[in-house]
Design brief:
The complex is a heterodimer of chains A (about 450) and B (about 150). Chain A has 15 helices and no strands. Chain A is mostly helical. Chain A is globular, with a radius of gyration of 21 Å. Chain B has five helices and two strands. The chains are: A mainly alpha (about 450), B mainly alpha (about 150).
Chain lengths: ~450, ~150
């Protein structure tokens, strides 16, 4: 750690891991309700449990992005963060908002649009925190060295804040409500979040492989260009059946098919950087998470997204378990893995600790990647059966659901392993260890070119 | 001279993104107008319907159900629930059946998914049904494929 203020990231990563645990526990709970629907059904109905599951996910991913920014911006800009105090105030607001929201949800205090259930005071808190953050990091970047990584990262972070403002607009007309609801939801995860993802991956590749910055930068711009060129009009795949014009069926099908490209480019980028590496960084776990991120994002967001994005197919699969399958692997691959990669990379520096406990960390990667993939497969099968019975044959919803029990049972099993994997990860990165099981430095360093 | 320099990549990114953003904003503006003039019946969007939407939101119905295919996938689609209950043929009976269904939750039947009781007044139930009725008339490019939703 070259700069003292990078330490801010430790607080953000800790908060993120706390909510990560809450997210997967709520997820396991929701999966259990699918199998045993009477479980505490009056105390904690499904809608409340799911709200906690999705909201905790979103907030911890954002905390991770903020932490990653505070860690990498000083190194990129070659100066301390503008104000350490503001960074901690921002964290306090976010944590207060997150805890307040979760406690509120349990007592049925919430708004009612999916993912935007936070009460107004929490939404305003998020905006205030975002403004503090943007001021703080923008000042740092403006006064320091400007790099492609900080340019793209800042653009992504500004985009997150700007598009979140649409969360405040809730008209009485459901169609108009939905059009702009997607401004937050789609433009976040299939737009500006991808900028953050590409920037953080670029930083990790730079540090882990030692490849020339010039090469990394070019890849970065190419990836984010593909992301926004495809992702903005790719919003069209959400505008098929919600009372919007028919032309979205063609625009959405074409551009959201192209949404596979930035993810494929990230696979090519990360693997070719590793092949061309000029440095053998001892943190193999961070490299595993980075490569895993690119690959699983390509499958989860790219392939699983494409599977049901063409309008002729989506007409039948829209709003079935196929969507749930895609959402789980996409979020895990693109954003969970990204954050865990960054945390794995940064923690040894933040805690000034070696060894990394990276064997356990790599085990947690395979447990998480394996169980989320298995979950995705079970939900995909459930979704295909559901689509056929309900959308093609016209059987009633609950009748069909009863036939999906086996899939939900398998999903519950996968969920239990996800919780296990999350705990293993946190133990590996946060709990001190006397000695590494296998030394990461055992391999002979590669000669420079 | 490189074929694809870093500054070329950067300019393509910024310029291209701006162009796609403007196209996207233009098309959503057009879609907004389309929603007002073509796909929804704005004259039927009464205070009761809007109030129904607020009740729908207050109880986070979307975290179990879907509406026009969006939401959680734990409970049936409600965008066409009015049609499924025969509202187009017999509105009175559909209204009564929907209200009775909501008021009689939870069933408590072992092994069945449970919907909470939201303690809605008769007025609130009527407004909620008005909302479902209004939503069922949205022109959705003929989605869902059948009444099952």
């Amino acid at each position: 750690m070259k700069y003292q203020s990078q330490k801010i990231a430790l607080t953000y990563f800790s908060g993120a891991m706390l909510l990560f645990v809450l997210q997967v526990v709520a997820g396991l709970w929701a999966a259990y309700i699918y199998v045993s629907p009477n479980f505490l059904s009056e105390l904690m109905p499904f809608n409340i449990v799911r709200m906690i599951h999705t909201n905790a996910l979103i907030v911890w991913l954002l905390l991770g992005f903020f932490g990653a920014s505070y860690y990498l911006i000083p190194e990129e800009s070659e100066r301390e963060i503008h104000s350490t105090r503001l960074a901690y105030i921002q964290f306090a607001i976010l944590l207060l908002g997150a805890v307040g929201a979760v406690v509120g949800y349990i007592f049925r205090v919430h708004e009612g649009r999916e993912f935007l259930e936070q009460p107004l005071w929490v939404k305003i808190g998020i905006i205030v925190a975002a403004l503090i953050f943007l001021y703080n990091v923008t000042m740092t970047v403006l006064q320091g060295r400007k790099t492609a990584i900080t340019n793209v990262l800042l653009l992504g972070l500004w985009g997150i804040a700007i598009f979140f403002l649409f969360a405040l607009y809730n008209p009485g007309n459901l169609v108009i409500d939905k059009i702009y609801w997607w401004y937050v939801v789609h433009i976040w995860v299939e737009g500006v979040w991808e900028l953050v993802m590409a920037a953080v991956l670029a930083f990790l590749m730079l540090k882990l492989t030692g490849v020339d910055r010039e090469v990394v930068d070019k890849w970065l711009y190419a990836i984010v260009a593909l992301a926004l060129f495809s992702g903005l009009l790719g919003t069209g795949h959400h505008y098929y059946w919600i009372g919007t014009p028919g032309y979205w069926q063609w625009l959405g099908s074409i551009f959201s098919t192209l949404e596979m490209l930035p993810f494929f480019a990230m696979v090519l980028f990360t693997f070719s950087m590793v092949w061309k590496r000029r440095r053998d960084h001892p943190n193999y776990a961070a490299l595993l998470w980075s490569l895993g991120c690119a690959v699983l994002a390509f499958f989860g967001a790219g392939v699983w997204g494409f599977m049901h994005t063409l309008h002729g197919i989506n007409y039948y699969t829209h709003g079935t378990q196929v969507t749930a399958a895609h959402a789980h692997l996409a979020f895990f691959g693109a954003y969970v893995c990204l954050n865990l990669a960054m945390i794995t990379y940064a923690m040894p520096y933040l805690l000034n600790r070696e060894p990394y406990n990276q064997v356990l960390n790599m085990i947690s990667f395979w447990v998480l990647a394996g169980s989320v993939s298995f979950m995705t497969f079970t939900l995909t099968f459930a979704g295909v059966v559901q689509t056929h019975l309900q959308r093609v044959n016209g059987q009633a919803y609950m009748e069909v659901q009863d036939q999906l029990h086996l899939f939900y049972l398998m999903r519950l099993g996968a969920g239990a392993f996800v919780v296990l994997g999350a705990i293993l990860f946190i133990v590996a990165t946060f709990v001190p260890m006397r000695s590494e099981v296998i030394s990461g430095k055992a391999a002979a360093p590669l000669p420079a070119e | 001279m490189e074929l694809f320099s870093k500054s070329a990549a950067r300019n393509i990114f910024y310029g291209g993104s701006l162009v796609f953003l403007l196209i996207f904003l233009g098309l959503t503006a057009q879609s907004h107008l389309y929603a007002l003039h073509n796909s929804t019946d704005v004259s039927a969007l009464t205070p009761a319907v809007v109030h129904g939407k607020r009740i729908w939101e207050r109880h986070a119905c979307i975290n179990c159900h879907t509406i026009l295919g969006e939401g959680a996938y734990f409970a049936p689609e409600l965008g066409n629930v009015w049609v499924r209950y025969g509202g187009r043929e017999n509105p009175e009976a559909a209204r009564d059946a929907l209200k009775a269904w909501i008021a009689n939750q939870p069933t408590g039947i072992e092994g069945r998914r449970q919907m909470p009781n939201f303690h809605l007044s008769d007025q609130e139930l009527n407004d909620l049904v008005d909302f479902f009725k209004w939503v069922s008339d949205i022109k959705t490019q003929d989605w869902p494929p059948n009444k099952a939703g």
